[in-house]
Design a protein that fits this description.
This protein is α/β, with parallel strands linked by helices. The protein has a single domain, classed as Rossmann fold. It has six helices and 13 strands. A nine-stranded mixed sheet has the order 11-10-9-12-8-1-6-7-13, sandwiched between helices. A two-stranded antiparallel sheet has the order 2-5. The protein has a two-stranded antiparallel sheet with strand order 3-4. Strand 6, helix 2 and strand 7 form a beta-alpha-beta unit. The longest helix is centred in the first third of the chain and has 15 residues. The electron transfer flavoprotein serves as a specific electron acceptor for other dehydrogenases. It transfers the electrons to the main respiratory chain via ETF-ubiquinone oxidoreductase (ETF dehydrogenase). Heterodimer of an alpha and a beta subunit.
């Protein structure tokens, strides 16, 4: 059994700064495994340990996706190996482009039984990659997954939804998107970090895949702050306190505050 977890190497927007003109600066931002992906890795690791499956990390993105720091950081989370497509043509790729390339990598690996993803990526947060990826693979997809276990010839998947939860029996390959609070991911220790350096990393050439980035692109042109609405102000003064209070109450009623 092969379990794949799709993860993203991305900058955290919380580390970005915005100047007075509204320009976003990423100079102080540090890249890392996207915030919610460790939850999917933990779900995958637990299932792999229970079934003896291989846990494979897959990532596509810019050239830095294949840097030693990026691959070692991912491997320290619990992967047996990682497969990456790192090409600057994929830097800032759209949700659809990312999902299509991921589908090609999964086909390249072959005989994959399950794909897990995080709830969303920390930088885009569109929550669309799992569904688009499943569509490209021709597999079903399930969102908001909280637990995954092996049933009698199938996978038992529990997902959260409004008003409660639902348990599904899944046969055949499937794409599962983990809920952000499904599990508490383990924090890599020194032993995990040292072991990560000895695990295999496969780099797949983007040109070798059937699907690459399309000619379409979306790029930011400018950013600006919202215009601040001026607040009306009125000062009430007078020696007669009761009269001032009455005037204040009348003013609040006139503006439907009370």
């Amino acid at each position: 059994m092969k379990i794949v977890v799709a993860y993203k190497w991305a900058f955290n927007p919380q580390d970005a700064t915005v100047d007075s003109g509204g320009t976003v600066t990423w100079g102080r931002a540090k890249a890392g495994v996207s915030e919610y992906d460790p939850v999917a890795v933990e779900l995958g690791r637990r299932l792999a340990d229970a079934t003896g499956a291989e846990l494979i990390g897959v990532s596509v993105g810019g050239a830095d996706t294949a840097s030693p720091m990026a691959t070692k950081s991912a491997l320290s989370r619990g992967f047996d190996r990682v497969v990456v497509v790192a090409d600057d043509a994929l830097a800032g790729a759209s949700t659809t482009q990312t999902a299509l390339v991921l589908a090609q990598v999964i086909a390249h690996i072959g005989d994959v039984d399950l794909v897990l993803t995080g709830d969303s990526s920390v930088d885009v947060g569109a929550q669309m990659v799992p569904a688009v990826l499943a569509g490209a693979l021709g597999w079903p997809s399930v969102m908001n997954v909280t637990t995954v276990s092996v049933g009698a010839g199938d996978l038992r998947v529990e997902r959260a939804h409004e008003g409660g939860s639902q348990v599904l029996a899944v046969t055949g390959p499937v794409v599962l998107a983990a809920a952000s609070d499904a599990v508490v991911p383990r924090v890599p220790g020194m032993k995990d970090i040292l072991a990560a350096g000895k695990r295999p990393v496969e780099k797949v050439d983007l040109a070798a895949l059937a699907t690459g980035p399309s000619a379409s692109s979306v790029a930011g042109v400018s950013t600006s702050r919202p215009e601040l609405k001026s607040r009306g102000g009125r000062v009430l003064a007078g020696a007669d306190v009761d009269a001032v209070v009455a005037e204040l109450v009348a003013a609040l009623r006139a503006t439907n505050v009370i």
